[in-house]
Amino acid sequence: MDKWVLQVMTPQEWEHVMIMTSQNLGHVDLKVVALGMAVVPLFAPGKLRRAMEEAITKGLSLEICSVSMGVAGLENAEPPKGAVLQPGLKAVAAARAAGYTYFVVA
User: Fold this and answer.
1) How deeply is 14 buried, as exposed, middle or buried, from its count of CB atoms within 10 A (0-12, 13-18, 19+)?
2) Of the candidates 88, 18, 11, which has an alpha carbon nearest to the alpha carbon of residue 43?
3) pLDDT tens digit sequence for 23-37
């Protein structure tokens, strides 16, 4: 099975990430790493949070940059269920070291 890590840095790209996730989950070992302002919508109730939580139950690894959370004032916010918090660039580097193909969603 192919292994992909998708880096998303802007909130505008979440719709594309959700499409990529729904089309490839189950066919590809998939990680999504959210950095920068892309972390903010994950903490709001709504479509994106529900979609990511559902995808996590189906095997998606969602990793949220803890540094970006702090910059956005979200250090005490509750992340989506099953998401992992860690510095985003470390998450990307670890995935690449583990053989994941790296994509920037832009």
Assistant:
1) buried
2) 11
3) 999 999 999 999 999
